[in-house]
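Record format v2
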Amino acid sequence: MGTAAMDRTERLLSPEELEAALRKIGAERYHSNHPFHRLLHDGKLTRGQVQAWALNRYYYQASIPAKDATLMARLPTPELRREWRRRIEDHDGDGVKPGGIERWLKLAEGVGLDRARVESTAEILPATRFAVDAYVHFVRDRTLLEAVASSLTELFSPTIIAERVSGMLANYDWITQDTLAYFTPRLTQAPKDSDWALAYVKDHADTAEKQEAVLAALRFKCDVLWSQLDGLYLAYVAPGLIPPGAFVPGEGA
Amino acid sequence: MGTAAMDRTERLLSPEELEAALRKIGAERYHSNHPFHRLLHDGKLTRGQVQAWALNRYYYQASIPAKDATLMARLPTPELRREWRRRIEDHDGDGVKPGGIERWLKLAEGVGLDRARVESTAEILPATRFAVDAYVHFVRDRTLLEAVASSLTELFSPTIIAERVSGMLANYDWITQDTLAYFTPRLTQAPKDSDWALAYVKDHADTAEKQEAVLAALRFKCDVLWSQLDGLYLAYVAPGLIPPGAFVPGEGA
């Protein structure tokens, strides 16, 4: 059996037990455990491999506001929608202060990619597109509780961001603090978002069935992140099987 | 640039030119070109690797009637819906003659998998689930013309089926003709389906824009099939990076 069955809850968990079960899923399945992440922050990747990561990850960044707007459209009150609108502002910016998408484009340019080439998403891996689109569809098609729970990977992101930034700065002399400016605001935004979502989930998952749905939603989201690194590993690390039409380091631009 | 731009049509193609452009996409991008397919029909895979293929591919087989029903729901006339209903009958059977899904379960059992374990889909790769679900969503969300065009990989399936069957029978003494009975009806069903879809596409793609959408739909569908083999290759061939919760050969059952 896959570990999918491991975290099953037969009885109603206390809110604290539910949080512990959620954190256990993160400890086991968050993409900080993926070999591609370790290669990235250990400085073991070539510039072309880091470019492939930045080019593909842009599609995830650019899709997050679509995901959040899809979720916000299902929230019943102004209070709830305001909470979620803040996330969209974080990613889209306010027209003056650059948002997460703009900051990610700066990161992509900082590692040597052409901005329009990244924005086109024409050369991303099908694995990236399918995983990211699955996240948007999940938030549209599942219960609101599952949709909110799928955002809980933010609970684990401060650690991976700290690892990425320190590792990349220490190991790649062609990457500057300025290039990694994307990550700085996320260190405060992500915890604010995940604290709210965790409280919402602990408050609303009031049956064993809902709690299992919440745990499954977080496993799903971990899969969305993990399989993006799987695709990058296969295509750009080993065995280097780049799918037809996908980004080839050193070509084009 | 990715080859995504290669087949772009600036002017209106003749129906024959459009068919040639579609067949060119198949020649370049159909999963018969994937190293995992070659390993499979050359008999280079272990029984556990063939099991992983059968277990994952089941999710694709089981989702095809959902894809076809989604498409059929959008067809405007009884004549068109009857044409598409035949495809669903081919996969679901008529209650007496087993359909494609039942025959695939026989194949999975024939390579040593437990039927209920396969049907649960609990241990498939996220890459499989995301790619297959992307196909169902594509058929729901795109134009009817694009939805029909995305089925045109059937144009290329008789060749890959012949390679699979002959290669697997010749190279795996634990695979019998009976185990591969899934494929026999497909050799006549697939051409009937693709002849109809090809005629429909050649008839309805009457602007350069529609023709480009049709070509893009076939490229998308090739990506859906290709990325399923990418996932299997990464997890079960090299580097053997099995995602958390996915099927592990020799475990469970």
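The CA atoms of residues 54 and 190 of chain A lie 20 Å apart.
Residues 1-6 of chain A have pLDDT under 50 and may be disordered.
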